[in-house]
Amino acid sequence: MRVTLIIPTLNEAASVGHVLRAFQSAAEEANRTIFLGRPVDWEVLVVDGASTDGTAEIARNAGARVIVERRKGYGRAYQTGFAAAEGEVIATADGDATYPVEMIPGLVKKLLDESLDFITGNRMAYLNRSAMTTEHRIGNRVLNLFLGVAFHRYLKTVPGRELADSQSGFWIFRREILNRVHLGEDGMAFSEELKIEVILRGLRIVEVPIPYGERWGPPKLSSWRDGYGNLVFLARKRLDVAQEAARGRPAPFAHRPAEAPPPPP
After folding, report:
1. pLDDT value at position 142?
2. Sheet strands (E) in 93-215
3. Count of domains in the chain?
4. Taking phi first (over 0 means left), then psi (-120 to 50 degrees means alpha), and beta for anything else, what does residue 137 get?
5. Does 181 reside within a domain?
6. Residue 126 belongs to what domain range?
7. Is the N end or the C end of the chain the one with fewer CB atoms within 10 Å?
8. Are 109 and 34 in contact (CB under 8 A)?
C-alpha cells in the first residue's frame, strides 16, 4: 500500500526540512512496528507556490517529490496535489511545523482498522495559546459556531454531532473519496469545503484531538480577511445545499447504505 503526504509550501525554508525529517522518522518507525509485515510505501509530495527562499530545493534534497504550482491559493495547491498523488491513502500537513506529522502513520492505521473514510485533526483540544493569535482563535470559534448552526441537520452523522475545528488542515483519508465529493474552492475555504462535502455525501468521518505547535516564521494568514471569506463561503454553501435538496439532487445527503456500491468516478 502507498500513502501520500501532501504539504503545500510558500517560503518555508526554515521549517520544511524539519517537517520532512520528523515525518520520515515516524514513517520508518511505523514500518518496523505497527506496519511490520505489511510495510507502507510512503510518498511525500510538496506543492510549492513558487517560493523564493529555496524551499523547493530543500524539500527535494530531503527526498520529497516537488511540484511548483504558480497559481495562488491554499485550495489550489491541494487540488494540484490530489491530482498528482499516487497513494491509496492521502495525508496532509503544513510546511511550517505546526501540525504533528509524527502522528500520521498511527492515524493511517486507525483509518484502515476502523474502516473510516476521513480523519480530521482538532487543533483546539490541546491548543497552546502561543500557537494561535487571539484574532485567529476568535475567528475559528465564529466559523465553528456558524457551521454547527447552518449544517446541524447533516452533522447528526458525525461522532459528537459537531466539528470542533472546521478550519483544520490536518487530514488523513482514502483517495477514492475524491470521486464522491465536489470541490471547487481555490482559497482558504477549501478546508471547510472538503469537510462539509465529506459529511454531505455520507462518508465516515472522525475528528481526533491533535497538538498544534507554534509556527516557524511569520504568519501568512489574515485573520479578518480570510475569516470573512470563509464565513461568506459557508453561507453560500448552505444556500447551495438547500437548493440541491429542494431539487432532489445530487443524492444522497444522508448516510449511504453500507452495502451500496460507490458511484463511478
Report:
1. 87
2. 118-122, 171-174, 205-209
3. 1
4. alpha
5. yes
6. 2-133+163-218
7. C
8. yes
